[in-house]
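User: Hi! Is it possible to get a structure for several chains at once, not just one? Here's what I have:
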Amino acid sequence: MKNGLHILLITCLSGSLLACQQTPPNSKNLQVSSQLQQDALSSTLAYDLVESLTVEVGPRLAGSDKDLVAVQWAEDKLNQLGFDKVYKEPVKVPVWDRGNAEAIVVAPYPQGLVITALGGSVATPTEGITAPIVRFDTLAALKASPAGSLEGKIAFIDHKTERHTTGKGYGKTVGGRSRGAVEAASRGALAIVIRSIGTDHDRMAHTGAMRYQDDVPRIPAAALSSPDANQLNLMLKRDDNVVLQIKMSPQSHGYATSYNVIAEITGSSKPDEIVLIGAHLDSWDEGTGALDDGAGVGIVTAAGKLIQDLPQKPARTIRVVLYAAEELGLIGGKAYAKAHQDELAKHYIAAESDFGAGRIYQIDYRVATQAFEAVLAMSAPMASNGVAMGTNTASGGPDVSMLPKQGVPVASLRQDGQDYFDYHHTPNDTLDKIDPAALQQNVAAYAQFAYLMAQSEIELRPLATK
Amino acid sequence: MKNGLHILLITCLSGSLLACQQTPPNSKNLQVSSQLQQDALSSTLAYDLVESLTVEVGPRLAGSDKDLVAVQWAEDKLNQLGFDKVYKEPVKVPVWDRGNAEAIVVAPYPQGLVITALGGSVATPTEGITAPIVRFDTLAALKASPAGSLEGKIAFIDHKTERHTTGKGYGKTVGGRSRGAVEAASRGALAIVIRSIGTDHDRMAHTGAMRYQDDVPRIPAAALSSPDANQLNLMLKRDDNVVLQIKMSPQSHGYATSYNVIAEITGSSKPDEIVLIGAHLDSWDEGTGALDDGAGVGIVTAAGKLIQDLPQKPARTIRVVLYAAEELGLIGGKAYAKAHQDELAKHYIAAESDFGAGRIYQIDYRVATQAFEAVLAMSAPMASNGVAMGTNTASGGPDVSMLPKQGVPVASLRQDGQDYFDYHHTPNDTLDKIDPAALQQNVAAYAQFAYLMAQSEIELRPLATK
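Assistant: Yes, the chains can be modeled jointly so their relative placement is included. Here is the combined structure:
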């Protein structure tokens, strides 16, 4: 409480007077916000939820049997926690099964390599694909190679992902994963392998979604672990002609129904206005999806539960959305936006937790320019939880990233992502990678954010252009 | 040079006068030792050798085709380096092929687990073995369970390996790997799984040798990755009845011939007396054996080469031995001891480098009690390379560990093993885990050790009883 007032004072002294006049978190908001922080930092609920999800459900690839087990798990948990409303909404998701993936160097130095299929990849023929590799530093370098230049070859994009707190290294390399197959195939390649989009040095390949294009042949696409990508480089240093054999057996099986699972705390005075906090329920199939996105599920659910248990509910409704099939292309997020099209004007603000379990160090918004200072002032109590006030350029997180286009304000609660891409989309995404104390700090931040936004009287629209 | 004299002085002041009288590293030894250190710290030879071995040969399980590729690689390299003698000696090794290993939890929470077969394990039936698990904290706890108590069960030893610079955590847990199957089977178990003998939190299981006993049924034995062992614990916390299914297809195929590959720098005045520095050429099959024991191969070979290139050879012969089949039970080491039985009395001292690529922080000896102070004084120049003088309780390293029983003095050049058991016997044992500067420090230490011992006039026998 003392901290909160102190920060407010600093904000008022250093920020705009207008903001302070418009939006002092009044003493009740300060008091509740302080209480939420205190409660979050002493609650094990988020960790218990991640443990339960990762142990009792485990991997839960969208469209798989385990995906529906996860949906049932989520409904049961949300009901047990006593939210005002719990419901689910169907989402059509593709069904893809990983099968096996093997790679060997045939020449000059025969040995096995560790690979994994990229999500959505087609299979190789049973006998595999055997061809020389052509190495590119980046996707851009591959795109600069001439038509036909990869005929009979396997393309190899060898782009290293940099380690940053913000995770910005991922944005620079992930295009090779998502668009590499199309670019390689359009130049005649038989298959593509990429250095994993990851910052670790483990002998694990990072999977992740890739896309095909209707007018371009569909070629198998796989990721190599970082040490295996190094190994190919050291072979190429000795001999230009490195021949790989890849065998992969993923299969697509049409579509299945999954669900966005939703819980609500009904607003006390503006129940039709929504503050949305989300995470995604699906995971890749190789780890247990602890960081991606069990952590998010635990964080936003526990944050919602703290608000559900308040003696007096905030003005607006808080909606906790556990999205389906984020990994396969933000499918649950897009389905939500479509299903709630008519209600989007009533979405006050939205944020998704989907960047692991590192501490939140900053909150960014995307709101009206004239509202930005005011919303920062309103958020000032979050500072005592280690959350600095940031910029007005947030995307909000993957499953809400399409909402700003429709006028919905968003916030990004920035997590420390130093080690997130060590584990992301690998078998190593397991419970032991989560620091319970950091998870509690996240819960505190989401609870404060959701509560303060549900109480805010600031007009957040129209959005600032980025 | 200055450093060397300074250290000698300190040793003389603080150590026994006798030692100083007997064994001053004379000015020539000091000068050569200093030059060896300087040359080692500016040479990339050891790293180049490890890179060549891990890239051009890769995994080289004793008894496999790649094992013979490694033998040829070693002969070629040692010949190219111009050692006075290069030869190989046959070693009979068992042939074992890993096949596949899969485990799933059948109940209560179906999901896959990451396992690997322990080296030498038999296969499961094709349909696998499906049974409830019985968890033990340690091998000792399993041994305390009554006869028949594991009938129809899969034993699970869940002993965590502690992280220590010395690696001593390994010694406390490895018995579960080597002897667990016999102990479990003698109590009726159908199979055994153990928490990997490792200090990491990676989703990789650590393989390693295990033994059977003629009068006890041979049951399949596998290691679980650390996160998977955690997962079983979290399931057992919820439900006593955790049912596993294990499918493994390793196969034994009799015996093959491998080789100890040996190089010598012929001694100038006592050519029939031997200073042996060794490492093992074989590796497990899942990584590329960079740390275990490509590093050792690089270190002792590069150290030998520095001495080979000296303008004046030391008194004794230095023998670089690259042992066969260490991983399968010190087979090359035992074969060497047998083949050189008649020559062991002429082995002045022996040491093996087989603990990765961490810096050497201490040298321990096992020599005559009355020689110990003198040999420390003789070794004093190693201090300028960061090597402290240690105890008189060395084992010498796995492949020379049987020599003290036959009267041969040994030394252990202790490496920092903080992270060694993160990677040991996993797919993660790859070149990127080696710090080139630390490798150079090792080469300097081995070159100084070998040279000084080849020049020493101290009588090292009879050995101190441990």
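Chain B touches chain A at residues 51, 55-59, 66, 109-112, 114, 201-204, 226-227, 230-231, 234-235, 238, 287-288, 426-428, 430-433 (CB under 8 Å). Chain B has two domains: 2-96+255-455, 99-249.

User: Great, thank you!
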